[in-house]
Design a protein that fits this description.
Number of strands of chain A: 11
Helix content of chain A: 25-40%
Oligomer: homodimer
Number of helices of chain A: 11
Strand order of the largest sheet of chain A: 5-4-3-6-7
Distance between the termini of chain A: 36 Å
Order of helices and strands of chain A: EEHHEHEHEHHEHEHHHEEEHE
Largest interface: A-B, 48 and 49 residues
């Protein structure tokens, strides 16, 4: 029994069947892990025979069975990087990795990918500059779901063209994780569609490659563990998650170059300050977002209308729930001052004090 | 000499003339008060012969010389309340106070005015419900300066109509303060127009009454002192400043009933939490504002687009500069949770971490 429900947990009399009327799997639930562990190991008598090393060996073995050539999109994030390195180990020369520069990437991301994937880990990476194409496709698009569809479709088109030119490829590999699968409602368990993740639901059916998702049963912390086993540098393994549709979902309203620029520069400030303070790896995600609302500021003795940037730093175990980070005011002050001093057009900075739920981690 | 300027202070050789290349009068300037005090009392040899009690006596005397009937707009704020009580003492029955309900007032403001001005202090207050008229005039108006002009003009029109019906009145009294006068560029000293305050620059010239501004030489803290001398209740004297154009400048973009409602309810939550925590009088202003940007939230297992509210709590001595309040995270969390739980349509809350400058106190 609980305050909110007459039966918080039930058991079928005479049979080993149990039910709970809450989410034992989310990190907010006290003793949720213990409850699940008791159920699995003490009631179901399951054995602990899963290890990341075993998962790695099994994955490499089963991926090496893939026939033909595999195309893998990398974004600089840990998920796609781990996917590419895993495939590189499994199928070597038959893998082609490609970074599509969508114009929606974080500051300096393309250079970073060239350096650590190409030079340090020996994964061949092709580059496609599709910035103008994405920005063109996004003109006039304001609805968040429509943005995701447009980015997903453009992404798939560019991929397909690259595949036709460089291919043929038989498979398309993606760094989809388990929470994406759940939230897109594609798992066996029923779940409402929270957001259409572009690397899950956004691919059009006409795509002429089969989709391979080697990480689709893993949570983020498990992918990081796998990345470490594969020899990825710590800075990449600890890199914050970045949404599939990129900065398009951190720009509220229509996606313009000017707003992207504000978003990118302000987000870089947030990351830099957290790194300086030794807080980067403590945070799950840390970025700034910007919309169309304009507020009044004062520069010298003159008034000016300008943009308001919202800084968001959250802590999370699995992205299913997330808490806003209780940063020290000194750190917030530093971030705020740097953004208004360094990012042209910004006159006000706010700090997100919403957790998930009721907000989502990404603003759109 | 300072880092930013070769000559921070200058003196004309052979003559008692001094200049400084910074703002000694703003509270951010260290020892600025001491510098001004030294100049006034030690160099100019001025005498301390000004007191609030003296100002009160002089004001009552000079206001009692006003001929004819005086109309005074009250808003519930300390400035207009002090103006009304001062005039009530000076001219008694010849004063008519009126509260225009613009639909842009804080939650419960009209009731509050009836109680403390009417019942406790014996000032007769007439009420005009002009909510629909203001909202109608604001349809389609998005530019902050245009909003101020529309509110100012509608205010003056309603006033004039009231004056014609109840009058004739010879004077219109307003609670304009010295910072408003400076920022509107009407003082003797040159100053850029930062904002058009509706109770200064917004009144059309056709208004058939002479404007009386008994507080135009005072700063806010002085008005509070004067209010205490006049017997205003502590809760009114300590009431935060409220902008002339009301919630119209706390709603970014077009002013709609729905956004006003969000703004009013969220602001009430902010005030209530600060009062509970004993922080209300420490803050200069504390409110929430809302714009048109929509962000994604999650309710139960469903996604929904909703509004983001920005909470702003600032500390200031004179409103010329203002620091964002370093509230405890516990307090921010309480405010955030209450707003998303209690204010329909809001899925995210941010806390303003910008000071003035570069932001202004009001968002528009």
């Amino acid at each position: 029994m609980s305050e909110g429900s007459p039966f918080a947990a039930v058991k079928l009399s005479g049979a080993p069947q149990f039910g709970v009327q809450f989410h034992p799997e989310v990190s907010h639930t006290e003793k949720g892990q213990e409850l699940l562990s008791n159920f699995v190991f003490r009631i179901c008598k399951a054995e602990r025979n899963w290890s990341m090393q075993g998962f790695l060996q099994n994955s490499v073995e089963s991926l090496s069975q893939l026939e033909g050539k595999v195309l893998c999109a990398v974004s600089g994030g840990v998920d796609s990087s781990v996917t590419a390195v895993l495939l590189n180990r499994a199928i070597g020369e038959r893998l082609t990795s490609v970074l599509i520069d969508t114009g929606l990437l974080r500051a300096g991301e393309a250079e970073r990918v060239k350096e650590f994937l190409g030079q340090e880990l020996g994964v061949k990476v092709a580059f496609v500059d599709a910035q103008e194409r994405f920005l063109g496709a996004l003109i006039g698009v304001k609805d968040p779901e429509e943005k995701r569809r447009v980015v997903g479709k453009t992404f798939a088109d560019v991929f397909e063209e690259f595949a036709e030119k460089e291919g043929p490829f038989d498979h398309l590999a993606q760094g989809t994780l388990y929470p994406d699968v759940i939230e897109s409602g594609r798992s066996a368990a029923p779940a409402s569609v929270i957001k259409t993740h572009h690397n899950v639901g956004g691919l059009p059916g006409g795509l002429s490659m089969k989709v391979v998702e080697p990480l689709r049963e893993l949570y983020k912390d498990e992918v990081r563990e796998l990345g470490s086993l594969l020899g990825l540098p710590r800075v990449v393994v600890q890199r914050h998650p970045f949404p599939g549709p990129g900065l398009a979902v951190r720009v509220i309203g229509e996606v313009t170059k000017e707003k992207l620029d504000v978003c990118r520069k302000a987000s870089r400030v947030v990351e830099e300050v957290l790194e300086e303070e030794g807080l980067y790896s403590k945070a799950w995600q840390a970025f700034a977002y910007v919309g169309d609302d304009e507020v009044t500021g004062v520069l010298g003795d003159e008034r000016r209308l300008g943009r308001q940037v919202t800084v968001k730093v959250v802590e999370s175990v699995d992205a299913m729930t997330a808490d806003w980070s209780r940063l020290e005011t000194r750190v917030l002050e530093h971030i705020s001052n740097r953004i208004t001093n360094e990012v042209s057009g910004v006159v006000a900075v706010a700090y997100s004090i919403s957790s998930k739920p009721p907000a989502t981690i990404e603003p759109q």
